[in-house]
From TrEMBL:
Matches recorded under CDD domains: alpha_CA
PANTHER family: CARBONIC ANHYDRASE
InterPro entries xrefs: CA_dom (IPR001148), CA_dom_sf (IPR036398), Carbonic_anhydrase_a-class (IPR023561), Carbonic_anhydrase_a-class_CS (IPR018338)
Keyword RNA-binding: no
Species in which this protein is naturally found: Hydra vulgaris (Hydra)
Protein's name in the database: Carbonic anhydrase
Gene3D superfamilies cross-referenced by the UniProt entry: Alpha carbonic anhydrase
Keyword Heme: no
Enzyme class (EC, first level): lyase
Pfam family, one: Carb_anhydrase
């Protein structure tokens, strides 16, 4: 109770400071730090105080097995669109990988019979190699989490999809530290090498075409967690069906270090105006508020019941089917 009151008072003072300074330049401004950090996002972005927010801590042994969580079916994830323009851009909060194309191209996934189109891919990292992912897995952080953002084809575009509970599907993929990977023989080499070319907010650089499948672990379409949540940045819209991969990718320390050199939007630091340093961009975990987290694969407890064996058999069949589609 005491904590809440103190928080409320501090919060009000900061709101006045933020709005009183220069309303036009501050309005809607947000960051991962100080008086525009995650605790204060809801002043200008009220959905961030909702009850179905992301990220969350995924407690593996509490995830509910749900056999309606069929494998993701990808389309054109492995295709390299040579006539499209692949780029990285720094939007002041993260690095986004996007594609521009003059002809209509179709990349995305089918899930539970619905078509979700690729919208963009971005990264979340932390100030050191022990933190950075937005979701936690049984209280454990990973140093990097990639979000592949899709919108429901039926809703026409991403911004319209934000108005619907099933409008957006974000596929989250954890990356774990592994300094033995060969960073020079890696399909993501050009992506990681170009991060240094988008140091400042607003920078954009073209990269070699890269299939989206490069960001996803092999044979991972059938083993994931699922829950209903939100965007992890303002407006924090509660329109996201989350798919959090159970298989994990690898990243090296040197690749991670490149992200921490990035800079965000300008803000006032004592008497000078400087770019925000983007050493981290991971929103803290949010309360579940009674939401359920589902798993597409039964949690292995060591016991062997016939239903577990059936599920395992189905899982093997799904692995085979989905590996054909990747
Ligand atoms: C945030 O939401 C809770 C209910 O979910 C409400 O009690 C609280 O007043 C809200 N806070 C603000 C600042 O709107
Ligand atoms: C399985 O998940 C769906 C949501 O995707 C939910 O509607 C359904 O109730 C779940 N079934 C069980 C047994 O939890
Ligand atoms: C793009 O170019 C590569 C290398 O030249 C080729 O293997 C691939 O088939 C091309 N992709 C398409 C969709 O034409
Ligand atoms: C699309 O067309 C415009 C104008 O013809 C051209 O400038 C641009 O480079 C093209 N972009 C791609 C990705 O092909
Ligand atoms: C994959 O992309 C090609 C080229 O844009 C397109 O013709 C095809 O329909 C796409 N495949 C699917 C399953 O959408
Ligand atoms: C890593 O950063 C976190 C906070 O972002 C901090 O709590 C922790 O002490 C740091 N760990 C190391 C080894 O520096
Ligand atoms: C997105 O779709 C909505 C609804 O169809 C439409 O009003 C809006 O103009 C579209 N926005 C863009 C950027 O195409
Ligand atoms: C690069 O990696 C691929 C697949 O992991 C491997 O087959 C190939 O031999 C490697 N090339 C070099 C030069 O190490
Ligand atoms: C990156 O952004 C900075 C600051 O806006 C600008 O000065 C610089 O020219 C940009 N560089 C590139 C390659 O776009
Ligand atoms: C910094 O503060 C000054 C004085 O309060 C204000 O005019 C300016 O807009 C602020 N700049 C930024 C980038 O916040």
């Amino acid at each position: 109770m005491i904590h809440r009151i103190i928080f409320a008072i501090v919060g009000c003072q900061l709101a006045i400071t933020v709005l009183g300074n220069d309303e036009s330049s501050h309005h809607g401004e947000w960051s991962y730090d100080s008086d525009t950090g995650p605790m204060y996002w809801y002043y200008d972005h009220p959905q961030c105080n909702g009850t179905k927010q992301s990220p969350i801590n995924i407690q593996e042994n509490q995830a509910i097995y749900n056999d309606s969580l069929t494998p993701l079916l990808l389309f054109n994830y492995s295709t390299v669109f040579n006539n499209s323009n692949y780029y990285l851009t720094n939007n002041g909060h993260t690095v986004i990988l996007g594609m521009d194309s003059n002809s209509s191209i179709s990349v995305g996934l089918l899930w539970k019979g619905k078509q979700y189109n690729f919208f963009g891919l971005h990264f979340h990292w932390g100030e050191n190699d022990t933190v950075g992912s937005e979701h936690l897995l049984s209280n454990k952080h990973f140093p990097l989490e990639v979000h592949i953002v899709h919108y429901l084809n039926d809703y026409g575009n991403f911004s319209n999809s934000l108005n619907y509970a099933d409008g957006v599907l974000v596929w989250g993929i954890f990356y774990q530290l592994d300094n033995s990977i060969d960073v020079n023989n890696n399909s993501l080499k050009d992506v990681f090498n170009n991060i240094r070319n988008v140091i400042n907010a607003g920078n954009k650089t073209n990269i070699l075409p890269v299939p989206l499948s490069s960001f996803v672990p092999q044979n991972s379409l059938d083993s994931y967690y699922h829950y209903a949540g939100s965007l992890t940045t303002p407006e924090c819209s509660e329109s996201v069906l989350w798919i959090v991969n159970q298989k994990i990718m690898k990243v090296s320390s040197s690749q991670l270090q490149a992200f921490r050199l990035l800079k965000g939007h300008l803000h006032n630091v004592s008497d000078s105006v400087e770019p925000e340093v983007l050493t981290e961009n991971d929103r803290p975990i949010q309360p579940l508020n009674g939401r359920k987290v589902f798993t597409s694969v039964p949690y292995f407890t060591g016991s062997s019941s016939s239903s577990l064996l059936t599920a395992t058999a189905l899982y093997i069949i799904f692995s085979f089917v989905s590996s054909v589609f990747l």
